[in-house]
Design a protein that fits this description.
The complex is a heterodimer of chains A (317) and B (294).
Chain A (H helix, E strand, L loop, with lengths): L1 H7 L6 H33 L1 H7 L2 H4 L13 H32 L2 H15 L3 H28 L14 H25 L3 H9 L4 H12 L1 H17 L2 H6 L17 H8 L6 H34 L5
Helix pairs in contact in A: 2-14, 3-14, 5-8, 5-11, 5-13, 6-8, 7-8, 8-11, 9-10, 11-14, 13-14
Chain B lengths: L1 H11 L3 H4 L26 E12 L2 E12 L3 E5 L6 H8 L9 E9 L2 E2 L7 H7 E4 L10 H12 L4 H14 L3 H4 L12 H14 L4 E5 L7 H14 L4 E5 L3 H7 L2 E6 L2 E7 H6 L4 H7 L5
Parallel strand pairs in B: 3-8, 3-9, 6-7, 7-8
Antiparallel strand pairs in B: 1-2, 1-4, 4-5, 9-10
The chains are: A mainly alpha (317), B alpha/beta (294).
The complex binds adenosine-5'-triphosphate and magnesium ion.
Adenosine-5'-triphosphate binds next to strand 2 and helix 3 of chain B.
Chain lengths: 317, 294
Amino acid sequence: MRNATAHAGSGPVPWLVRGGWFSVATGGAAILIPLVMVALVIGLALASWPAMKAFGPGFLASSHWNPATDRFGAAASLYGTLASSAIAMFLTVPLAFFIAVFLTEFAPSWLRAPVRYAIETLASIPSIIYGMWGLFVLAPMLADPVQPWLRDHFGFIPLFSGPPIGIGMMTAGIILALMILPYMTSILRDVLYLVPPDLRESAYGMGSTSWEVTWRIHRRYAASGIFGAFVLGLGRAIGETMAVTFVIGNNQGIHADLFSPATTIAATLANEFTEASEDLYLSSLFELGLILLLVDMLVVLAGQWWLRSIEKRRVGA
Amino acid sequence: MSLMRQSFGRLRGPDPDRVRPLNPNPDDHVCRGIQGTVRPDLGPPPKARVRCLDFFYGNRQVLFDNNLEVPSNRVTAIIGPSGCGKSTHLRAYNRIFELYPGRRARGEIMLDGVDVLAPGVDVIDLRRRVGMIFQQPTTFPMSVFDNVAFGLRLHASLRADALRFEVEQALGSVGLWDEVRDRLNAPAASLSGGQQQRLCVARALAIRPELLLMDEPTSAIDPIGTSRIEDLILGLKRRVTVVIVTHNLQQAARVSDFMAFFYEGRVVEFGPTSQVFHRPSEHLTEDYLSGRFG
Ligand SMILES: Nc1ncnc2c1ncn2[C@@H]1O[C@H](COP(=O)(O)OP(=O)(O)OP(=O)(O)O)[C@@H](O)[C@H]1O
Ligand SMILES: [Mg+2]
């Protein structure tokens, strides 16, 4: 009442005071996101300019990385990033899907809470712990007996050759898989829970088995969420630094086998920034960083594009 | 015709009351008899016979001693106030409640003389024989064609042309063929609500169920769609036995031959629809039908 009389003589309250400030504040906060993105790209691009000038597009194609001769190429790191992520996804995708389905369709109710708790705990373990475990437990195990056994029995496949020293691409892939497994499982489980109960009952009501309901209904209904989980997992695998740096062996080379030491962009950056004294060396590392950023963004963009396209030709709800 | 008689003969079979003990359950369960059960005179033989059915959500019992005989090739309506256990009762017939932990049914539901609640029953086969329609259309996230073909692909391995034929038949039997023949590959979700519900009926019918359960199948559908579905239900009797839960008494009167009135988890009255409507034997039924509660 008091306000009403107070305003009566002073005309309408200005928009900015009545709530406009709120729009301005939220809009201002939101604009930070694209700004940060642009700033990141520009900053990295500026810092990597000397390397770009020196090596041109050949930087991407060359696996030559030698600080002694001042020659740098991204191919080995880029290959390592893609290959280790691919191994991780190859191992994780089916596993995460199976675990999530087990949790939503099969697990007795008393088991669900503890398993869920365990998964969430695993997902929150700092990556350096995974790295240490990988180096001191997993790598020796792979060095003997796993890799020799693989080489003896499957050595005719080029993938399973090379020095069985336990440190290399294979170990990095497995560690990455373990790291993103809980993460992807918990997202997938949430996605599967989103399938409406009626729909699920209806599918079971047709006389479907759990497998058929999962594969034919859940997979389609939750396709976007499932894909989102995979993209998030992949994004994480690509950028993961600490654990991989521990176990991949940091070797600037491209090998067809899984046993050999290799490197990833993130691992190269983590290892070499402190040593980079030369301008060109430092600049090359920045260019690597730029490539990592772009690859990660590309993965997410491709994921979103793919999502939209299935949304368009999507059959059903 | 002879086939019909044969299968009726099979349906009648040995009287389960004679060959089975009254209390077949190992639990200490006392069946309090069959009060409230009216065996409809001169009616067709029962497709399903519910005896002493109790149901529990965890420790909470919500069905008490349900006894009911569902006549073959007829429409049986289940009515009653909200929360009286209609859906729970219906969902025992195909054991769909088992998808959720902690739910338990006790008693027996004989389908063609075999207790579907008994351990060792093949629930996949049971659910092939007992179709279910829900309140909201539950079209699957796939094309119109794939929806109808869903069950056929699960249970019959048909060649492509045979599959197409069956799908066309099923869509025809719900009066949907002419409406969707040009968009069989369109997403099922692009159909109207009423069309989607009929699509669900077609999907259920495609695998030739013997019993069709419908839980308020028209309560989310517009009036025109509703009347089409009611017509459809009337025509279904030739092929299947229908049990329909409905809140709409007019609908129950229009489509059903028999009617069961549920109240607080019990079957209060069961009989031919006109009889229950015009000469109910229980006061409770009368009160409900005259709108005094519910
Ligand atoms: N998941 C559940 N857990 C516990 N109790 C439940 C559950 N579902 C239903 N009930 C209870 O069981 C009783 C019967 O419910 P049911 O859904 O079968 O009633 P209904 O007759 O179908 O009601 P409506 O007409 O509203 O659909 C109700 O008292 C309800 O509260
Ligand atoms: Mg209900």
